[in-house]
Input
Amino acid sequence: MKTSTEKEKSSKTKRDVMLEAGICDMRYGVKGMYIWLPYGMEIRNRVDSIIREEMKRTSHGEVYFPLLIPENYFKKEEEHIKGFSTQVYWVTHGGDKRLKRKLLLRPTSETAMYPSFALWIRTHRDLPLKIFQIVNTYRYETKQTRPLIRIREIHFFESHTAHETFEESEKQIAEDVEIMSNIGKKLCIPYLLNRRPEWDKFAGAYYSMGADAFMPEGKTLQIGTIHNYRDNFSKAYNIKYKDDEGKEHYVHQTTYGMSERLIGAVVLLHSDSTGLILPPAIAPIKGVIIPVIFKGKEKRVMEFADEVHEDLKDFVIDKRAITPGNKYYDWEKKGVPLRIEIGPREVDEGCVVIVPRDTKEKIKIAKEDVKETVEKELNALSDRLYKKAEKLLREKIVNIEDMNKRKVSRKIARFNWCGSEECGHAIEESLGVSLLGTGSEKEKGRCISCHRDCDTIAYGAKTY
Amino acid sequence: MKTSTEKEKSSKTKRDVMLEAGICDMRYGVKGMYIWLPYGMEIRNRVDSIIREEMKRTSHGEVYFPLLIPENYFKKEEEHIKGFSTQVYWVTHGGDKRLKRKLLLRPTSETAMYPSFALWIRTHRDLPLKIFQIVNTYRYETKQTRPLIRIREIHFFESHTAHETFEESEKQIAEDVEIMSNIGKKLCIPYLLNRRPEWDKFAGAYYSMGADAFMPEGKTLQIGTIHNYRDNFSKAYNIKYKDDEGKEHYVHQTTYGMSERLIGAVVLLHSDSTGLILPPAIAPIKGVIIPVIFKGKEKRVMEFADEVHEDLKDFVIDKRAITPGNKYYDWEKKGVPLRIEIGPREVDEGCVVIVPRDTKEKIKIAKEDVKETVEKELNALSDRLYKKAEKLLREKIVNIEDMNKRKVSRKIARFNWCGSEECGHAIEESLGVSLLGTGSEKEKGRCISCHRDCDTIAYGAKTY
Output
């Protein structure tokens, strides 16, 4: 186990990765709130685009609900208030005037949206209602903040749906699970999907699932959550539909949320001692062409490099008057997936050298095959990143047969759990982990706390 | 002149246009804040994309600065505070705890950004610095609010630049003027560009320019503002660069801002009694194909319509089992630029009928020419919208030779003005207008207030 000083050093390194790659600048005057730099914004916009594509594919409409929520909207669902009231920011004044009604900054948008759901939904023909928004949410975190991981201004995706029946809402959950899987693949983030224990579900939810990715620092990071609310909120916000006979029913609702933690996971999972390695799907620059100049041969090399660039319009060509080594370093820090080196020898041979950011292996290919090879190498790099992270995840899962042994450190514990809260907390205490919840697989065994027979498999780990 | 009841009716109609087209829902619990519906969001995202393209073309990097600004950041530039302090929202509590330092919601981002500019800019090699962000800003408006026009949660574009010299900053202003012109053309919004009088410039600016579009209701709407700050902010925020000799200088800064008023202008300018007419550049659906079915000929018409749809992938085909008339009405409300009607006769002749949203003139063309004609008709519609609005603008400008006559109503007054504040206010009072500022053209004459010789042309109108 790392000492606390080592941990700090490693955490500092990731901060450096982010600043040096040009993702975020952490020097802002409010704790837990950071500046997104142009390169970081391009990555973030690409992640948002991937989400929007998935939403379009699955017929969700994009909306925007106001940031400011009136106190009376917020106070309708009891569990939800309990869950959030200690961490909402309150706006109390406009100019010098005290507002008649306090307003809160959205910590999430259930309470902003659902009064409108009650207006929009009249009959079963208005269902399913499927919407999403990508906005910032605000939570006055009392825990230690950390860029991209635990922050007070969160770049947030949230989809909200309403359905006729519980069964329909469960189909939506299945669709969300599929979307999460597509996004995990594109961003090269494998994860475990766990159904959270009762005491850790979203405030107001019937049940919650979390996508837990394992980070090299030894903890799991929740990168997405999917909730079935059943009719908990529709009862509080009076969201009803009439069926064909004119009979009224409360709708069943689900939500699905993700944030810039997706980018946090990429930074934590996919960087090395030089800097970032970006999954091609979210890389603002897919590759860089570097002419390696020798005196007297500049012109031929430059012309050849320009020709290669013609075929690779989303590549950058770096003609700066600095050494190739310095150029390599600059683009490696930024995580650019591919580098193409072109020197006099390549020109003579009609070839280029392709160097993937992760392996740094030199691949020499004929100039006419460049476009095709680049496409192939980008896919191959993406596969390698995913598989490497998946291997890490799988390797770190340890089966626990008996909880009365030593703590589980920097690993994910896998064990039978009877499902009782008492045993859950006992296990957390004994293993020194948080119970992530139950996976979808079944396996006969005995609860490691009470030793009763059960077939439920649960996971536990230290979390961010 | 319209009576006040007529005005209300016309204003209500525009609200209806927005709700019926599916742009905004005004039923939200905070005054001046509205819900963007899916169709409205698609339009808004298209406007944002056009802005992002222009920003990319002119080498501005996209950033994001936090919403919450610490009080001490805000209070550094005196004029700026004076201008904004009555209309900022204050966050005073996190959960139940009073914050040690109050935070304000950004009304605009100078004070959030410029402490970072002081960190980022070291030498002349860091200049020019050109960034922008698209965010929401918050202003506690005391005037009457109105959707898309005067609101308290503003969807805001703001670019901020820093330069070595005043001359360089003036070149930036010229670039901003060109960008504004490109955007005006694409959105079919002609405007006058006026240099605002001293008493109406942006808080902290050296000078301000406003793009004023004329709306059919008889008032001008400011759809964009461009400011040269000179070194007013750099002195307050200590933003300096070293020249080649190591000598320090304050940077010169500019900003450029636009908002969803661009969409407000489109709604006010380009709608008729049926509903919206969208400029093709921002239309989520470029056209709709409507099979006009007669008993017994369904199959042939549908097949033919599907074939046409093959060629027009960004068109929608409407196969609902309702009358063609109802379909026409639905899509007209939404402002879809083109309609294609296909009935049995068209199938027999191998033709389609194209109906532009504005003229409703039926254009019959051979099926094989559909793609080309659609492209041409979209451009033609865009041209007509722009020219119609430009004609309105030009017609409404009245030259005023003498201010001691009747008020200027539902028009734009054009007159010589000596430039003095005293005369400016006297003219405003006498004509019953706001002084928009001075245009770029010169024309010899006499100030209509003091009768001194001058060649400055100014404009005045009622404004939103």
About this structure: Residues 285-379 of chain A form a domain with the Rossmann fold fold (CATH 3.40.50.800).
